[in-house]
Amino acid sequence: MKIISINAGSSSLKFTLFEMDNEEVIASGVFERIGIEGSKYTIKYNGEKIEQEIELLDHTDAVKVLLEKLIDLAIIKSLDEIKGVGHRLVHGKDKYSKSVIITDEVIEDLEAFREFAPLHNPANVLGIKAFREALGEDTLMVGVFDTAFHQTMEKEAYLYPVPYKWYENYGVRKYGFHGTSHRFMALSMKEILGRENFKMISCHIGNGGSICAIDNMKCIDTSMGFTPLAGIMMGTRSGDVDPSIIPYVMEKEGKNASEVVDDLNKVSGLLGLSECSSDMRDILSNIEQGNEQALLAKKKYVRRVVDYIAQYYVLLGGVDAICFTAGVGENSVPVRKEICESLACLGVKIDLELNEKRGEFVKLSTDESKILVYVIPTDEELMIARDTLNLIQNR
Ligand code: ADP
Among 109, 146, 221, 387, which one carries the catalytic annotation? Predict the structure, then answer.
């Protein structure tokens, strides 16, 4: 059975087509600059890569071209072969704690929650509507929310110590993100350990990043908050800072609040501190050339990850495993090494030779380590496809 996973952004649409009988990727790709001059698509299949510039006025156009290409390239014979479409949805607030079949109500909710994810939710709706138009209402579509996995947090984890009515009246609370990736980590660890009753800390560290404390397959706490700006230091996001900085900088720079928050989102983090790049690869090569600010940025980055791991270690009362994933977590050898060295006091010990591996599943911890440490490449697209299949089969 073939299922397609979709991640629709405001001007892009990524897809992965799976044969779910063996969970194999048949084709994948991205449509970029939708509605902007210079739009193009890239499709990978059978070891080939096709790239073409083509006018794409909107998401409906992109989906039309995608489906035509799947047939033209003989990736599928007919559209009937696609039995379900799984959509990555960003914000389901506290209403959605698991993946759901997309109905009109889900679309209305995505629209109603748009002020919580102003860039993502409207884009997600565009993606859903484009597929509905192309495949008709009968093709089953499933929504997989980034926020869903975190809905098991207790009130004392998700509430901020602010006036309670901000929560009651305006929904001010921690929602958490990257839930699909953290759930994938928990399921992978379940497979490794052969049981569900374990405690782990999942570190999704990429351009965006979040840490999640998991007990018995449930999220206990996570570092992102009301928005993805909270938590650890990221590529361009500051993570947690003292909010009093905002009015202070507003006055100094003659900016309004959203402009300063924009600075915290877009020109802070690795980029802000290093003043050279938001990409850890550039940071590392700049360090090799003796760039002190790049070194400072990496040290702060490692420290913020370690801060959260330490916090969650205590919250969980010890952990069985720590896992690393996403761009930095899967690939950055020195960052993993330094994080793990900082955790030596908890009994973490990793094999430095195995830590040289990049982008692949590897057990880093040695036999003497008190905590298991793994690198697990995340696969959010597969999780979306699995959830879609599951909901189709159990309808
Ligand atoms: P996103 O959060 O946008 O999905 P990714 O998970 O793809 O981001 O992570 C992107 C980041 O991963 C890059 O900005 C870079 O810092 C880091 N990264 C990717 N490959 C490497 C590598 N080989 N070495 C170090 N860092 C890497």
Answer: 146
Domain(s) labelled CATH 3.30.420.40 in the chain stretch across 2-145, 179-380
Neighbouring CB atoms inside 10 A of 87's CB total 25
Helix residue ranges, H only, the chain: 59-72, 104-112, 120-135, 155-158, 164-170, 179-193, 245-253, 257-266, 269-274, 280-288, 292-316, 326-331, 333-342, 380-393
CATH number, domain 2-145:
3.30.420.40
Reported as a single tens digit per residue, the pLDDT across 324-381 is 999 999 999 999 999 999 999 999 999 999 999 999 999 999 999 999 999 999 999 9
Q: Whose CA is nearest to atom 27 of ligand 1?
A: 328
pLDDT tens digits, 108-156? 999 999 999 988 999 999 999 999 999 988 889 999 999 999 999 999 9
Q: Residues with Cβ within 6 A of ligand 1? A: 206-208, 235, 279-281, 326-328, 331-332, 358
pTM listed for this prediction: 0.96
Mutate to test the pocket of ligand 1, among 273, 279, 325, 355 (most ligand atoms within 8 A of CB): 279
CATH code matching the domain that covers 179-380, chosen among 3.30.420.40, 3.40.50.1820, 2.60.40.350, 3.40.50.970:
3.30.420.40
